[in-house]
TrEMBL record:
Name of this chain's protein: DUF4385 domain-containing protein
Pfam families, A to Z: DUF4385
Native source species: Nostoc punctiforme (strain ATCC 29133 / PCC 73102)
Domain of life: Bacteria
């Protein structure tokens, strides 16, 4: 099932209401789902490889703690933050400003113009650090088990 953006995220504690959580695709909901966003976000950084390593390791430790507690949503949110560390640092590795598209009011509604590619090896290294942790998280056996269980319990579509 797709991620449900219609929920009242400001007032839902997903630790208390796991039945409302949907995995969605990629990083969907990473900056919405509480209390996990507030627990993980302070550690999410990628400016340099050293900072990215420290950040990815801390968030991966949190991922493992959530798994140990059988807290799938916490583990999934940690996985999403790690994935977002990869995608954001990769974007900055490709585009110095972090913007992929040229901002041009004349082209609104039409095809966006992609800014020139400028490789930043420092951000590319940060991206590689997060990518390795992301793969480690998403392939974790217990994570896969909890994902399947969550989908079976809460995301299965009942026949009409």
């Amino acid at each position: 099932m797709p991620f449900d953006y219609s929920l009242d995220f400001k007032n839902i504690d997903f630790r208390q209401h796991p039945e409302l959580y949907r995995v969605g695709k990629g990083e969907q909901g990473v900056l919405l789902v509480e209390p996990y966003k507030s627990e993980i976000l302070p550690y999410w950084r990628f400016k340099t490889p050293e900072i990215a390593r420290e950040s990815s390791e801390k968030i991966y430790e949190m991922f493992l703690v959530y798994l140990k507690q059988d807290d799938f949503i916490g583990a999934d949110m940690a996985r999403k933050f790690i994935q977002m560390g990869y995608t954001r640092s990769r974007r900055y590795a490709n585009h110095k400003t972090g913007r992929k598209y040229k901002q041009n009011s004349e082209t609104s509604g039409s095809k966006k113009e992609i800014l020139p590619y400028e490789e930043d090896p420092v951000k590319a290294e940060s991206a590689a650090i997060f990518k390795a942790k992301w793969i480690q998280a998403k392939t974790n056996e217990k994570y896969q088990e909890l994902l399947a269980r969550h989908k079976q319990m809460y995301e299965s579509i009942s026949p009409l």
